[in-house]
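Internal ticket #5521
Category: modeling
Description: The requester needs a full-assembly model to guide mutagenesis choices. All entity lines are attached below as received. Residue total reported by intake: 404.
Assigned to: D.W.
Attached entities:
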Amino acid sequence: MIGRLPRYYRYLGDLKSEGVERISSQELSRIMNVTASQIRQDLNNFGGFGQQGYGYNTSYLYDEIGKILGLNKQHDMILIGAGKLGQAIVNYMNLKNRGFSFKGAFDIDPALVGKSIANVPVFKMEQMSDFITKNNIDIAVLTVPKAAAIEITQVLSETPIKAIWNFAHVDLKVPERIQVESVHLQDSLMKLSYNIRRNDEN
Amino acid sequence: MIGRLPRYYRYLGDLKSEGVERISSQELSRIMNVTASQIRQDLNNFGGFGQQGYGYNTSYLYDEIGKILGLNKQHDMILIGAGKLGQAIVNYMNLKNRGFSFKGAFDIDPALVGKSIANVPVFKMEQMSDFITKNNIDIAVLTVPKAAAIEITQVLSETPIKAIWNFAHVDLKVPERIQVESVHLQDSLMKLSYNIRRNDEN
């Protein structure tokens, strides 16, 4: 269920920006390609926003799902690994709109330290732990190679960080209080390759 | 099940490069944090590579899973959208090692056209369809904004492309013969935010 919430949030955001004030579960079903009964079941879990025969208030539902997703709170973040992927994430995601804000970046490359990426200052890796504590950082975005990711995760585990958004190609071991969400790009590409092979054979 | 195969492949690749020749389902269970019976069930689906009391041949199992994932074939790719995220993907993923190779990139920005990204030439967007046909391109990697992604997907649907690896924040509609795998970074970040909120409340 939580897996489907960001998708609801995305579609409702689109509807909202198109000026759609109310939407029925049937209509949402059609555009999202999910059964209407699945939609009613999902959304009733979250307090029955809808009214029979009247549909959902798009804006209200959007805000409520946003709260469930914790998007009504400010999340301060750091980037660990200020290479190309890290820079792309800082630049691309336009995160501030949703309450996510990069406060600093950390790298071992002396050529990057002291510079900025989209107004985010790059510091030495050794400054990371202190920075997290002093600035109440919630989320560390990890865009370093695998071996470094394992090492840095050990350091992060000693800090008050709440979550790691992991782009390294490895499963991280962390204390239970730290949340991890991994984006395994290579796994995703392998799924695509698997589906191509299956389709070629049919 | 297919969802778990890339992870098996990743762990077996690590074991292989550490020089581990054989591994038991118990040991694999421990390092992967999956039950041994789940592992036996998954891997027996693929032809019973293992032998009771003797374990799996790491290298053989790695290669067989690679074949199932279609990784024994060469996949030629193009990048659509040569901005920061696209550049990061071309640079970062070290794709050639696994039979994935970028043959060209396409962008509407005249400042990028004619240049190269990690030796991949950037062409005009209008040249895309012809390029796909002439070069037998299998996979289009889509790193453009949402509105452009929808438009370009319509163009791609008229070409012999086999798959789209989608980084745009939208669900793409394609003919059934085209495979789509999406990396929705914002959805992933929202899951993290949700888990932080839940953990804060406990």
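Resolution: model delivered.
Comment from assignee: The CA atoms of residues 79 and 89 of chain B lie 9 Å apart.
Ticket closed.
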